[in-house]
Amino acid sequence: MSFTRGDLLTRTRRLVKGFAKAEPLWLKAMEQLSGFDPPPSRVFGWRVLELKEQGVSEEEAIAVADMEYRQDKKAKKKAYTRLKQIAQLKGKKPPPNPYPSAIKEIQAEERKYVAARFFDPKIRESVRRMMEEKVVESRDK
After folding, report:
1. Which of 25, 50, 101, 111 falls 20 to 30 Å from 117 in CA-CA distance?
2. Which residues are within 8 A (CB) of 8 and not within 5 positions of it... i.e. 6 or more apart?
3. Measured between alpha carbons, how far is 92 from 86 in angstroms, rounded to an integer?
């Protein structure tokens, strides 16, 4: 029987061999991946401004926006967990995390520069020069 008959949800159910729920939570959360995601700080600021325009005090607006942000982040985390479970049940490698930590992203970008400082001859030469200057300064004192 071909899994291409029926609507998308029926096909999805057949594709994961019954491991999906009637309305999978991960499906809704993963739809957000298709478009442009503004930075969380911008979304938070927009939400605070929307609430302030509706007449809510600034403290309450910040509290509500923070609560909504935490709920959204929790939903995304649950969606990714569900994707990993489905991949594990199917015996496949889980997909990469679409919501990595900002700190880890920055560290990944800087990793090549950190490694370069140990092996790049220009950098090693400048470090050697700086150490020689330090020795000369310490002798002068």
Report:
1. 101
2. none
3. 9
Q: Does 28 score more than 90 pLDDT?
A: no
Which residue has 């949800």 as its token pair?
9
The residue with tokens 């509290």 is 63
d(CA 73, CA 19): 24
What does the buried/exposed string (b/e) look like for 100-110 if buried means 16 or more CB atoms within 10 Å of the residue's CB?
A: eeeeeeeeeee
Phi, psi values for residue 118, rounded to 5°: -90, -20
Residue 79: Cβ-neighbour burial (10 angstroms; 0-12, 13-18, 19+): buried
Structure tokens that stand for 12 in this block: 């999805």
The per-residue DSSP string of 18-71 comes to T-S-SS-HHHHHHGGGSS----HHHHHHHHHHHHHHTT--HHHHHHHHHHHHHH
pTM of the model: 0.49
Closest CA to 43 of 14, 19, 65, 70: 65
Q: How many CB atoms lie within 10 A of CB 78?
A: 13
**pLDDT tens track for 96-130:** 887 777 788 888 888 888 887 788 888 889 889 99
